[in-house]
Design a protein that fits this description.
Layout (H helix, E strand, L loop, with lengths): L1 H41 L7 E13 L2 E9 L5 E10 L3 E10 L2 E11 L8 E2 L5 E2 L2 E2 L9 H15 L10 E6 L12 E7 L4 E5 L1
Antiparallel strand pairs: 1-2, 1-10, 2-3, 4-5, 4-9, 5-6, 7-8, 10-11
């Protein structure tokens, strides 16, 4: 009987120690994440104010489907990736996650969907500009390491949907509305992001 009580006490003590280690570990990770984002805030002005992370072209619209190509670029204008899609629908939309950082706004291209595909079921495009965990659309020659670490941390939270602590996070979309601002076949369009606020689409 005494042995059983001793074993229970030992097991309870072991459990409490394990819980304390987990809590301490989570606290340490959170503090480390916060530090990286604080460093990003302190140097956010070094990010390029205007960038063109995405260009796309409608290849065909036929039989209720849109066939199009998308290219992703870094902040120096170098091509990162190219992907073709064929989606059900007639109207194309791009969705961005936008995070306010200090007095700037950082926009991450998130999904592509149509009038026939709900945003939640759209094509997740994070993977198309993910380079070893870094959102390559923000890369440029001589980019400060503190900014890189901060952007990587924000990107990681978005990818894992760990967004509860991302204050002010909101979505922003660009749409192709039939008969009003319809994206035309064979035209090349660029999506321009402004860190002072705003995402716009221009025909080239």
């Amino acid at each position: 009987m005494k042995k059983t009580k001793f074993n229970l006490k030992f097991a309870l003590l072991f459990l409490l120690i394990a819980i304390a280690i987990v809590i301490l570990g989570l606290f340490s990770v959170t503090k480390f994440q916060d530090k990286k984002i604080e460093k990003l805030e302190s140097k956010i002005e070094l990010l390029k104010e205007v960038s063109t992370p995405v260009r796309f072209k409608i290849i065909d619209k036929n039989n209720g489907k849109i066939h199009f190509a998308v290219k992703f670029y870094d902040s120096d204008g170098n091509v990162i990736n190219r992907q073709e899609f064929s989606l059900e629908g007639e109207e194309l939309s791009f969705d961005f996650f936008v995070i306010p950082v200090k007095d700037r706004y950082i926009a991450f291209p998130h999904k592509i969907f149509t009038n026939k595909i709900a945003p939640k079921d759209g094509e997740n495009i994070f993977k198309l500009y993910d380079k070893n965990g870094f959102p390559e659309i923000f890369n440029s020659s001589g980019l400060d390491n503190d900014i890189k670490l901060g952007l990587q941390e924000l990107f990681s939270q978005l990818k894992t949907e760990n967004i509860e602590d991302l204050e002010g996070l909101f979505g922003s979309g660009i749409q192709d509305i039939k008969g009003i601002s319809e994206f035309e076949k064979d035209n090349i369009y660029k999506i321009v992001s402004h860190t002072k606020g705003g995402i716009e689409i221009l025909s080239e």
